[in-house]
Structures are given as structure tokens and as C-alpha cells.
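Practice problem 4.
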């Protein structure tokens, strides 16, 4: 909805180039999230989808927002597989919660690395941070989701379950071998770290 509002504002300004870019990013995102052909996809595809989302946010917030990616040199983005929609919900969480009551400029840093037999991603923002109560609430929601998925989905607000949904899906896939932490970043803001098991094919490369 916010993206459609941005398109409307751009049309009033007669900014056809930005309208075209915005529509392009939005179409690519919608195509990606509505495809169910493959559950596991390459890290390269997931990074592209996440960057499409971030570019939409960049158009919306302009110079008030910046982001960066850091992919370790030992990571093969084309052969490393992970569940679809793993990264983007972590980034979206920054806007849903981290930046909610903090004035811009806002920043997001995304890092991906491998320490066999696991892959890891961290998402760091310069938002309001996370309280111990909020961390416990997130952990409780994840456990509730795993125990009673249908009830949990009904009780959650639209747009408020991205992080919980992502972690719960990875727990279902990797069981207790998943790594997940959410903490206050040393410089302020929040850092989310998520890790899952590498596929056997990647380990054999």
C-alpha cells in the first residue's frame, strides 16, 4: 500500500522515470513471493529479491535511508541454497519495529557468511534497539507458532509476523540446529543473526 502511495505521489510530480523504476521493483517482488515452484532457492536470488525491497524503501525515503551488503569471499551465492523468503523479512523487521520511533537517517547493514556446516546472516539497523521484554515476546511467539501454527497465524496482525514466520519455518526445516539471536547492537539499534545448515551439495563443492 505504501508503494502504491509513492507511485501516486510520483505521478503528481510527473516523475515518469521513478514511476517506472518503482513499478519494476514491485513487479519483481510480487513475482518472487507468488512463485511456489521451488522452496529452496539460491542465495543470489534471495539477495536480489531483498535488494528489490530495499530499493523500494530507498525510493520512498530517499536520502533518509541507506543500506549495504557484505558477502564473505568464501560464499558462492549461486550454489548456496536456503529457504525462499529468509532474508527480506529480517530487513522488513527494521522498518516495522526498529525505525518506528526513531528519526532518520536510517541505516541497514546485511552480512552473509559461511562457517561449515552452517550459513549465517546478520541484519543490523540503527533503530531503537530491542528490550528484554520484546525479545521474550518474540521467542514466545515463535514457540506458539511451532506448537499451534493455525492458531498463531489467526492471532497475528498482517505485517507483524515476518520475523516470527521466518524463524519458525527454519526451525521446522532444521530443527534445533538453527541459530537465532536478536540483541542490541553495540553502536545502538538491533542486530538479528540467523543461521541454517548448508545443503550437502554445497559442502561437496
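Answer key:
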Amino acid at each position: 500500500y505504501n508503494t502504491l502511495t509513492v507511485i501516486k505521489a510520483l505521478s503528481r510530480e510527473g516523475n515518469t522515470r521513478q514511476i517506472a523504476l518503482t513499478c519494476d521493483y514491485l513487479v519483481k517482488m510480487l513475482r518472487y513471493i507468488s512463485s511456489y515452484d521451488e522452496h529452496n532457492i539460491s542465495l543470489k536470488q534471495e539477495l536480489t529479491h531483498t535488494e528489490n525491497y530495499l530499493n523500494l524503501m530507498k525510493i520512498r525515503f530517499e536520502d533518509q535511508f541507506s543500506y549495504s551488503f557484505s558477502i564473505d569471499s568464501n560464499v558462492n551465492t549461486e550454489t548456496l541454497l536456503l529457504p525462499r523468503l529468509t532474508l527480506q523479512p529480517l530487513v522488513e523487521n527494521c522498518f516495522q519495529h526498529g525505525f518506528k520511533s526513531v528519526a532518520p537517517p536510517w541505516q541497514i547493514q546485511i552480512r552473509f557468511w559461511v562457517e561449515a556446516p552452517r550459513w549465517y546472516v546478520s541484519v543490523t539497523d540503527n533503530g531503537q534497539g530491542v528490550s528484554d521484554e520484546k525479545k521474550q515476546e518474540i521467542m514466545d511467539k515463535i514457540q506458539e507458532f511451532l506448537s499451534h501454527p493455525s492458531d498463531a497465524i489467526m492471532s497475528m496482525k498482517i505485517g507483524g509476523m515476518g520475523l516470527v514466520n521466518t524463524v519458525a519455518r527454519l526451525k521446522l526445516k532444521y530443527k534445533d540446529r538453527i541459530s537465532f539471536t536478536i540483541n542490541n547492537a553495540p553502536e545502538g539499534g538491533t542486530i538479528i543473526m540467523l543461521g541454517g545448515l548448508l545443503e550437502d551439495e554445497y559442502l561437496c563443492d
